């Protein structure tokens, strides 16, 4: 697999936006630049694995990428919160 510089930039931007949105929805604040990017990218992997199995397709283009990644990141943060057993909703 060959990633171009543009592809990497899209991954980082979508990861940042999705991670920030998920942080706002679950915790009320973001997790910092690097934390938001990592959460968003992992959320995108979760959504890309889970949504086709459930037959879910939301939006098109950039909106689809950000929406799916945000939902995946929210799922990730909720699972992490349940495992750690702490914090407020």
Structure description:
With 89 residues, the protein is an all-alpha fold. It has a domain at 40-52 and 60-74. Helix content is 76%, strand content 0%. The chain is built from 3 helices and no strands. Helix 1 (5-26) packs across helix 3 (61-84) and helix 2 (33-54) packs across helix 3 (61-84). The radius of gyration is 13 Å and the shape is globular.
Give a quick rundown of the structure:
This protein has 89 residues and is an all-alpha fold. It is 76% helix and 0% strand.
Note the topology.
Blueprint: H1 5-26, H2 33-54, H3 61-84
How many whole angstroms does the radius of gyration measure? 13 Å
Low-confidence spans: none
Classify the beta-strand content into a percent band: under 5%
Task: Please report the total strand number as a whole number.
Answer: 0
**Helical/strand content category:** mainly alpha
**Average pLDDT for all residues:** 84
Number of discrete helical segments: 3
Largest sheet: none
What helical percentage do the residues reach? Answer: over 70%
- Give helix and strand order, one letter per element, not per position: HHH
Distance between the termini: 39 Å
The geometry reads as globular
Keywords:
89 residues, mainly alpha
């Amino acid at each position: 697999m060959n990633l171009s510089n543009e592809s990497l930039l899209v991954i980082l931007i979508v990861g940042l936006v999705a991670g920030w949105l998920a942080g706002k929805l679950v915790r009320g604040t973001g997790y910092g630049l690097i934390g938001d990017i990592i959460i968003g990218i992992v959320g995108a992997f979760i959504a890309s694995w889970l949504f086709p199995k459930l037959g879910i397709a939301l939006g098109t283009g950039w909106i689809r990428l950000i929406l799916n990644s945000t939902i995946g990141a929210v799922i990730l943060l909720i699972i992490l919160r349940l495992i750690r057993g702490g914090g407020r909703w």
